[in-house]
Every structure is written in C-alpha cells, then in structure tokens.
Amino acid sequence: MRIDLGYATAMFHRGDELGSTAIAHSTPGPAGNHQPTLTEPAALAAVEGNRWPVVLAGYPDHRPGPDHEEPLQRMRRCIDPIRTVADVSETIGELKTYRLVESRQRAHSRLNRFPGGLAIVGDALPSVNPAYGQSLTLSALAANALDAYLRSAPSPRDPARTYIRLAETVVESAWQLSTAADLAQPHVTGPYPRRYRIQKWVADKLTEASVIDPAVNTQYTGVVNMQLPPKALTTPRFLAQTARILLSS
Predict the structure, then answer these.
(1) Which residue from 131, 135, 133 is spatially nearest to 36, judged by alpha carbons?
(2) Burial, 222: exposed, middle or buried (Cβ in 10 Å; 0-12, 13-18, 19+)?
(3) CA–CA separation, 56 vs 61, rounded Å?
(4) What's the CA gap between 16 and 89, in Å, rounded?
(5) Residues near 185 by Cβ (< 8 Å), separated by ≥ 6?
(6) What mean pLDDT is predicted for residues 217-223?
(7) What residues does each domain of the chain span?
(8) Burial, 161: exposed, middle or buried (Cβ in 10 Å; 0-12, 13-18, 19+)?
C-alpha cells in the first residue's frame, strides 16, 4: 500500500513545563476529514534523561522538511502540551527526517517451500506505517511467538511454519489497524478491504466517542496500542455503549 509518509523527530529538554503530563498525541480525525487542517499529526512522550522526543508526520505535500524551524511552527499548531514544549523547551541535537513510500505485508505462510532453521522477524514480516508506533510492539510480539515455538523443541531442520502462522496472526491485526487509518488519506488508493466504507464510518464514530468518554478511550487506545485485539471494538456491548455516548453528546 503506497502511503508516501514523511516524518521528523526532534528532541527537547524536559523540565516542569507540563507538570505531570507524560504523553501527548495530536491526530487529525473525522472532524477535519483526517487532514491537517485543525491539528498537526504529532506526538511526544517523557523519556529518560529529562527529554521530550517529538515526532511530526505528514503525507505527500505536507511531509516535514529538514528546516529546523519548521517543526516548531508545526508544533505551535498542535494541542496545548505540544505547543508548550515548542514555546518554552530547548532543542537538543539535530532534527532527523525519514520517508516511507509504502507499507508492505509479506505472507510467508503461503510459500510452498520454506528453509528449515529460519525465523522471520521485524520488518521482514510487515513494514507498516511507523507513525502509529506499532513496529517495536510487533517485533516484541513476534519474539514472544518465537519463544513459544522454540519451547516446543522443534527440529531446526524443519520449516518453522507454526511460528510463521503465530507471527502472521499478530501481523494481520496490526495491518488492519494501520491500513484502515492510511486509507482515510485521499492520496492512498488501496487496496481496499471488503466493506471498507462501513468500516471507516464505524471507525470514525469510535474515534469521536473516544474523545468524549474515558471508558471508550481506554478500550480504543488499548486496541491502537495492540494490548487488545481489533475485535474488542466490534462487540455488541461496546458498540451500543459508543452509540449511547454519541447520541447524548
């Protein structure tokens, strides 16, 4: 799936400017047709060494450039915590930029032949949009699947098909989440999954409710952070709860 993403990372000194805030995330959503008209795609999190790493993302004509002042300008169009860091915090080191042209899912389980003693991990399984922060989680979950497979004492001469199937189950969940968000961008032209329009409509409504209600937000972010499977957002009880919140807002 061609996404043509560009993003930049910048580091800032962390003092007491945000009080107890440890993380802030700014994402264009349904209200702005998923475009950076109301807010910039950005995130920051408190890390060791009294630092704020800040990530800024954008697509074709809105990719961050190498100009040091541009991130500050973008951050000042974000939500207040990110805007505050831009205004009062000192930058550390140089701005770093990166570009990813496409997301790619590799279905190794479909191969008729597979070498023995070989395990596929990391970006060799999927390469998904890094703006959603899934890659390290995917690698950790794949390592967990590999651990479970090795504990079964398989022969190193046999293809690790059981492991591959376990790992691809995790990959499929991440792929669904990542590509569903990417397809909301007008420049991304597919491939579209079946029933995409209704899926997008439901996802937009869930996003709206997650901003309003803490309980919905907890489950919503649990799925986004891959702590819960995507089906956690499609249970009748959860959808009914979301509908009640939107109707009463």
Answers:
(1) 131
(2) middle
(3) 14
(4) 10
(5) 3, 34, 59
(6) 91
(7) 2-102, 108-182, 196-248
(8) middle
Average pLDDT over residues 141-154: 93
- For residue 152, what are the contacts with CB-CB under 8 A and spacing of at least 6? 162
93: left (phi > 0), else alpha (psi -120 to 50), else beta?
left
Residue 215 contacts by C-beta under 8 Å, 6 or more apart in sequence?
241
Residue 49, CB half-sphere, CA atoms under 13 Å: how many? 7
Section 38-62 average pLDDT: 88
Q: How far apart are CA 76 and CA 220, in angstroms?
A: 27
- Measured distance CA(249)–CA(247) in Å, rounded: 6
CA 72 to chain centre: 22
- Report the pLDDT value the prediction gives residue 15, as an integer from 0 to 100: 94
Q: Is the pTM of this model over 0.70?
A: yes
Model confidence over 173-195: pLDDT tens digits? 888 888 888 888 888 888 888 88
Residue-wise pLDDT for 161-172, tens only, equals 999 999 998 888
Please state, for a pLDDT cut of 70, what percent of the chain lies above it.
96
Kindly state the average pLDDT of the residues 139-166: 93
